[in-house]
Amino acid sequence: MLNKFSSSISAILDSRAEGYSLPAGLYTREDVFQADLDVFFRKHWIYVGLECDVPEAGDATVIDIGTTSLILLRDDDDEIRVVHNVCRHRGTRLLDGGPTVISKLVCPYHQWTYELSGELIHAPHMGTDFDKSCHNLKPVHFRSIGGLIYVCLSETPPADIAHLERVMEERLAPYDIRNTRVAHQTDVIETGNWKLTMENNRECYHCAANHPELCVSFIDLDFGFDPATLSEEDRAEAEEHQRLYVKRIAAWEADGHLSSPVEQLAGHETNFRTQRLIIAGAGESQTPDATAASTKLLGTMTRKDLGDTHLWGHNAWNHFMGDHAVTAMVIPLSANRTLVRTKWLVHKDAVEGIDYDLEKLTNVWVATTDQDAELVSRSQLGVEDPAYEPGPYSRFTEGQLDDFATWYVERMRAHGY
């Protein structure tokens, strides 16, 4: 349905030039922020958490997205549920933010009580003719894909989530993310628009100059380079790296480890990309020395040399390695504030101080996330400056950003803007 802002936003979308960054208003305006929440965080599938966030029956955690509050929980039958955090009496929030343990969901206002399945079982003083079955908690569409929880707040969720599910269930199976635990979590508030956060994550043009910790294990050449600007020696190194990639992917896949890129970007509703990346140096994990942080490997993994299976979505990035995984969720808080919630996962039986060292496990992505927050803040200040005008993306290193911007405009158009 068109609203009073649609025409104004449409004009900004019209002004976006292919191959260039987005016009300033798409990063700064309040009406655009509200449209983004509606289109990309209510009508598309978004990553919100993990099965291992709620490992036992009665475990629950609250996730807030704009004015919407959700409860992710595990019920008495050990099933994952996602319900709206809204009492069916007068709308009171049932649970406060963060994790908790419950036996029932009890509204603190008038004590309406729900089973963990969402069924209303107690509504005092409502009369003998009151039909409790008409007032169960509202469920939320969700998928658990390899242990990652995706939700869609729309009544008609995009059906092409099925492709993501098919691809990633198979690729994530050896890591058994459902049987991990969260060893550490950080919440970083970036002072920038969520799209700047995602754009920053979609390229490694900036990595060599800004991420010394990450570059020990991460190879920026994986995300493109301009051969004409390289020295003869550097160009030979880049070409050798590309040959190694072809050889390594062929060897991995011959051993049954799916590795080739799979993309579902512009032209689709659900946006994702996955690929197995080579880890530099010691080649085992994204740690300060590129060796494994945990001696207890994930799932059925028996090798430390299988690189980094990455998965991008429009509000998340994930890295799955033999010894641990890192997941990051992005939730817009305002036009210029964005929550980045990062979790480090280890085998559920791994013991801190025995099987892994927490500092080694978290060092690289704690540093990288803080560095990225500074870069996003600088970017936000820039797009708010009257001197800003959209600049050209590098066709060598920023093709993913152009794809993201194109997809963004497509999806806004598809929803009436």
Task: Provide tags for this entry.
417 residues; alpha+beta; seven-stranded antiparallel beta sheet; four-stranded antiparallel beta sheet; 9 helices; 17 strands; 27% helix; globular
Structural description of this entry:
There is one protein chain. With 417 residues, the protein is an alpha+beta fold. It is built from nine helices and 17 strands. The protein has a seven-stranded antiparallel β-sheet, sandwiched between helices. Strands 4-3-2-5 form a four-stranded antiparallel β-sheet, with no helix packed on it. A three-stranded antiparallel β-sheet has the order 1-10-9, covered by helices on one side. It is globular and about 85 Å long. The termini are close together.
- Count up the helices: 9
Strand proportion: 15-25%
Instruction: Provide the spatial order of strands within the biggest beta sheet.
Output: 11-17-16-15-14-13-12
SS elements, strand count: 17
Backbone structural class: alpha+beta
Computed Rg: 23 Å
Short description:
By secondary structure, the chain is an alpha+beta fold. Helix content is 27%, strand content 23%.
Give the helices and strands, then pairings.
Layout lengths: L5 H9 L10 H4 L1 H11 L5 E5 L8 E7 L2 E7 L5 E5 L13 E4 L3 E2 L6 E2 L5 E3 L18 E5 L2 E5 L8 H12 L7 E11 L3 H8 L5 H4 L21 H23 L7 E3 L7 E6 L30 E6 L2 E5 L4 E10 L2 E11 L10 H27 L14 H16 L3
Antiparallel strand pairs: 1-10, 2-3, 2-5, 3-4, 6-7, 7-8, 9-10, 11-17, 12-13, 13-14, 14-15, 15-16, 16-17
Helix pairs in contact: 5-8
